[in-house]
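Sample 1 of the test manifest.
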Amino acid sequence: MALSNVLEIPTSGFNFENVARNVALEGLLEGGHTKTPKPMKTGTTIAGLVCKEGVVLGADTRATSGEVVADKMCAKIHYISPNIYCCGAGTAADTEKTTDLLSSNLTIFSMDSGRNPRVVMAVNILQDMLFRYRGQIGASLILGGVDCNGNHLYTVGPYGSIDNVPYLAMGSGDLAALGILEDRFKPNMEMEEAKELVRDAIHSGIMSDLGSGNNIDICVITKQGVDYIRPYQESEYKDKRQKRYKYGPGTTSILTEKIIPLELEVVQETVQRMDTA
Amino acid sequence: MNTRGLRSQLKDSVPVTGMGPQVGAYGVQDTLRSGFSSVKNELLPSHALELSEKNFQLNQDKMNFSTLRNIQGLHAPLKLQMEYRAARQIQRLPFLQSSHLALDTLKGNDESISFEDILNDPAQSEMMGEPHIMVEYKLGMM
């Protein structure tokens, strides 16, 4: 029973108090020809494939906010654990936070058990989390990693669907990238050939999709370790800055200067020995 | 005073609030923050996730207990629930923040991080209830 003078502390987690207000504001703003700010999405091309020695993941580096390029050097390949990396497409903040949470959970697990986590664990945790929020968290992820059971590549959709496949592309440029992958993929490829194939797939995504662009990042995960090459290939269409926009010293003239010295004197001094046994 | 008798009168703290933002922190309409009340907003959830999130922990527990009962028999969930009930009683006074350490360890929440630990942490809450009123409410004197 709720009384008017007894405080009920809100439960932790998501707070839906402002939803009705936001809906009302949306209606008002549309009428006034102003739009609510759009979240930054990573309209993206990400791809991954399993090769003989490990897993190769690739991503472009453009983040868009509506029709504007918000970030030209966005890092879409996120660290999950020393043997698992994850590419994220969808809303940028959602992919960041979800992979961060996942990484924290797996770190706690590895500290508890003393082992590197397996890729299936990461996938199951993600699936539970994304399904619980019914797709409101807009994160489509490609997880790749090497563990004691071999090399794995999984995709996790925003509603919690998972798939375990040898090669994969996601994001707005996925159809273009998938075309290249379907054409040239062979099981058990050599490392250099696999890197070239992923690069070509991302490149075709960049060329054919407006939401993808700029540089290409590649991440190679093997039993020996991880090689995160950022950028693997820089875009040829980089603009050159004409001038430096930093102000040299002396640009702003000093009108007056006033110096007040603070006189501090030692009032009391105590020494406490620390037992560093 | 017989403290054991007092304990048995402690209310289970499961506050019942109305759906939606109309019911503010003190159980009445918070007109300044959420506007005028309407019956529709009281009854229907405003967000797709509101209902499912409200009862998520309860539903998870129910599901897990029923699975446990099917696998190991009735004694398993009974024992666990007895432990939960015992741990839930080791709290500080109602207006103070309890760490819920025993409860968290039992439930396994100390080994995982989710949005409950990051967002809207009750330990960071900016409001505190009036101590006497809160204790009286908890003891059922109000």
